[in-house]
Structure formats: C-alpha cells, structure tokens
Amino acid sequence: MARKACRKFTRAATACLLVLWGTTGCNVDVGPLHDAFIGKDRNPPIVLSVESISSQCVVCTFDEPVRQDGSFRWLADGESPEAIAEDGATIRISTKRFLPKGARFVVEGRVRDDAGNSTWFSVPCWGCNETLAGLKINEFTTKGTDANPDRTELLVTDDGDIAGATLSNGPLDTWDTRIILPSQAVCAGDYIVVWWKGHPKIQSECNEDGTHTYSFAVDGSPGLSANNGALVLTENPAAQAAIVDAVVYTNRETTTYDGFGSKPLQEMVRHLVASGYWKCADTAAPDASCGIDSTHTSATRSMARVPGLPDTDCASDWFVTETRGATFGEANTDRRYER
Fold first, then answer.
1. Same domain as 86, residue 176
2. In the predicted model, what is the mean pLDDT of the chain?
3. Do 80 and 228 share a structural domain?
4. In a domain, 333, yes or no
5. What is the reported pLDDT for 304?
6. 6, 52, 195, 307: most buried by Cβ count inside 10 Å?
7. Cα 336 from Cα 302, distance rounded (Å)
8. % of the chain residues with pLDDT over 70
9. Predicted pLDDT of residue 283
C-alpha cells in the first residue's frame, strides 16, 4: 500500500509540474538573460619571470598587478623570506642568508590580482653572481676527433668569478647542450676551456706567462654541430638571462633556412642580429653569409679571434688557423690556414 501511494504521489507531482511549466514557462516574459561574469576579470595572474637581482633579493614579475596571497618560500630548504614588497606587477622577496651565486633553487608562492583570481607558482631561479668575471668567446672547433675533441675557449677580460655563466650550443630555449660553469675565481688573461666531448687530463694549470687555464667537461654532450651553429654565452642559465657574447658559424653551402640548415638556428641568428649581439649586412633577413666560414676548419684548424682586434661581433673578427694551429688555453696564433 505504501509503494502504491508513493507512486500515485509521484505521478501527481509530475503532472502538476508539467501543468505549471505549460501555463507559465511559455507565457510569462522573464526578460533577457545576462551573464553575471561579462566584463569581469576571470584570468589568473601569469608569472613572466623570477630573477635573482642580488645575493639576497629575488624579483618576481607578473603580467598584471598582484598581491601576496599566502606564504613564499625557497624550496631548497623551506626557508621563508625575511620581507616581501609589493609594487604593481612585481614582488620583491628579500632573505637574510646569502643565496649561493650560480646555484639553482626554486621559489614557491601564491599571488592574487585585484579581481581575486589567484595563481600558485613554483619556478626555478639561479643565485645572482654579483662578481661575474668578464668573458668572451675566443676560439673553438666543431669537427673534433677522439684525439682532438670539440672545444670552446673563453678568454677572461675582467677579474671575478665565473659561477653560473652558461655556454650553450644553440638557441637559448632549445639548446642542444650547455654547461653551467661552477664557482671559480679568475683574473683577466686567464682561459676557460670547455670540452664538448671527452675529459681534460688537467683541470687547472699555470701558464708560462702567469695566467691560468681552467678546463671543464660537458657531461653527455654529443659535440658541436660540425658545419652550422651558434654558441651563446649568458650570465646565467635562465631563458631571459643577459647575453654576454655570441658567435655564428656556417659552411656557406647549406641551402635550407637561409643557409643555416634548421629553423631553430635561423630564428636564433635573427634574434642575435636584431638584438645587436651579432652583426649582419642584412639585419632584416640575415643569411649564412654573416657567419664565420667553417668550410675549411678541422679538428686542429680552429676558428679563432684575430689577435689584437677589437670585438665588433661579426665574422671579420675571426679566421681559421693553420693545421695544428689550435691554441686552447694559450694566446691565439696569427697563422692562418692557406689553401
């Protein structure tokens, strides 16, 4: 009896609702419907960059004004910052302890915008090296052998520490291989030799002229591109890091992508030229003719800076040394390869 009564009640209630819908839903004007969220900001803040600007300060930049929405910390040890300063689209984080220069750590936190949209982020950052040594790319080979592997020499132009300085083989965001240099005090005139394959027998040695040569190996590197490529030296490994020096080399025979052989390299050269880090006759559409000619290089014929010339960031600063003319860890020779 109870089940029958329940079914009767359900059928009656359903019929009543249908009647109400039929008599009111079609005849009553309820007016236009409005989206309550039209004109409202529903997009959360986006992290544009997280950068260590000193040994005790990190600046987080967003795409809109934000405020702290919870705690911040360094993921490495869970330490909370000493102070946080909000300034429009940036948040400045200060800490009591010194962040290791060139070392990687992670910043975590939550922020919200004026509309209440929030973002939690966890972003890697590198400790600022406030005493970064002056460096420039001075010599390199790209057609190495087991006996004479691919190497790149950096010349120290100003005293300091090389911690965090990063040498990349290829574009900043799509590099093939790179090395993040460790902390090492150096003096003007010293040399840093990066081994793209193999390992140096001696990692530190004193030269006859009183300068020093420091050698470092790139773990897991397949070596450099033999014919077409770019080497980019930056202050640290971050994608937005300032470029210190760059070189472009080509064999003048490749026909694809303006002679660079790949789209990433083509785009990287365009960026270097547009930013003034490499010079080319046609700044709007640089082609392979702007690169150092790698055609006649070998494992022992390096691409080297012309001794005594100022750095003008173009191919004319460079030449191909004679056979067995590579001088890694020493002053560049002036003896050129002659066909």
1. no
2. 87
3. no
4. no
5. 98
6. 52
7. 10
8. 86
9. 86
